[in-house]
Design a protein that fits this description.
It is built from six helices and two strands. It is mostly helical. Strands 1-2 form a two-stranded antiparallel ribbon. Helix 1 runs antiparallel to helix 2, helix 1 runs antiparallel to helix 4 and helix 4 runs parallel beside helix 6.
C-alpha cells in the first residue's frame, strides 16, 4: 500500500468522523428544541424539530453509503474494520435519537391544557439527563475514550430510576382524576422517549468499548426500568 493510498484511507475515516460529528450536533439540537417545545408548548418550535428530522435521516444515509464504499474500496481488517462498522452503528443510534426527539416534539401539538408544574419538572429533568448522556457519549466517541463511554453506560441507571418514579406519579394522577388521562399519557410517552434515548447512548458506549478493546463489554447492562412489570390497581403497564 502506498503512502498516497494510506493518506487517502485516513482521509476517508476522518471524513466519516466529521459527518458523525455533524450528525451528533444536529441531533443534540433536535433534542434540546424538542424539550423546550414541550415545556413551553411551543408549536412552531415543535414543527421545526419535526421538519429537521429529514436532515438527520439524510446524514445517516450518507454515512452508511460512505462507510460501505470505504469497505468495498479498502477491504479493511481488524481495528480499521471495527472503526467503520462502529461508525455505521453510531449513525443508526443517532438516527433513532432524532426520531425520539421528533416524537417528543409531536406531543406539543397534543397538549392544549396547562401542564402541572410538578409533572412537567420531572419530565424536563429526564430530558436534561438524556441530553447530558448524549453529549458525554458523543464526546467519548470523538475522543475514542472507552473510560468515558463506560461512565455514560453506568450513568443510565439514574435515568431509568427517574423514569420509574415519573411513571408511578403519572399513573397516580390518572387514577385520581380521569380527566388527567390524556395529558398524563402524552407526558408518559415523552418520558419514555427520554428513557429510550438513554438506551441508545448506552448502545454507543458499548460500541466504543468494542472499537477500543475488540470485544464486547463483559458486564451486563445496568438496566433499571421496572415499569414493564409494575402493577398498579386499575392499571397494568406492559410493553406487549
Amino acid at each position: 500500500m502506498t503512502d498516497h493510498t494510506v493518506k487517502a484511507y485516513d482521509d476517508e475515516l476522518a471524513s466519516l468522523k466529521t459527518m458523525l460529528a455533524q450528525m451528533g450536533g444536529l441531533v443534540e439540537q433536535q433534542l434540546d428544541d424538542a424539550i423546550d417545545a414541550l415545556s413551553r408548548r411551543d408549536a412552531a418550535l415543535a414543527d421545526r424539530v419535526i421538519q429537521n428530522d429529514e436532515k438527520v435521516d439524510m446524514l445517516e444515509h450518507q454515512i452508511e453509503e460512505k462507510a460501505i464504499l470505504t469497505i468495498a474500496k479498502r477491504q479493511p481488517m481488524a481495528r480499521d474494520l471495527r472503526e467503520i462498522m462502529v461508525a455505521i452503528r453510531v449513525a443508526s443510534d443517532l438516527e433513532r435519537v432524532g426520531d425520539l426527539a421528533k416524537n417528543t416534539a409531536k406531543r406539543t401539538h397534543a397538549i392544549s391544557e396547562p401542564l402541572p408544574r410538578k409533572l412537567m419538572t420531572g419530565v424536563i429533568r429526564m430530558g436534561r439527563l438524556a441530553q447530558e448522556e448524549l453529549k458525554n457519549i458523543l464526546d467519548a466517541y470523538s475522543r475514542t475514550d472507552a473510560e468515558l463511554a463506560l461512565e455514560v453506560w453506568r450513568s443510565d441507571e439514574e435515568l431509568d430510576a427517574l423514569y420509574n418514579s415519573i411513571f408511578r406519579e403519572l399513573l397516580t394522577y390518572m387514577m385520581e382524576d380521569p380527566r388527567n388521562i390524556s395529558l398524563c399519557t402524552h407526558l408518559l410517552f415523552g418520558a419514555k422517549n427520554m428513557e429510550r434515548i438513554g438506551d441508545h447512548a448506552t448502545n454507543i458506549a458499548e460500541n466504543i468499548h468494542y472499537l477500543v478493546h475488540g470485544k464486547p463489554l463483559a458486564e451486563g447492562r445496568p438496566k433499571k426500568d421496572i415499569t414493564s412489570s409494575l402493577r398498579v390497581e386499575g392499571f397494568n403497564h406492559s410493553d406487549d
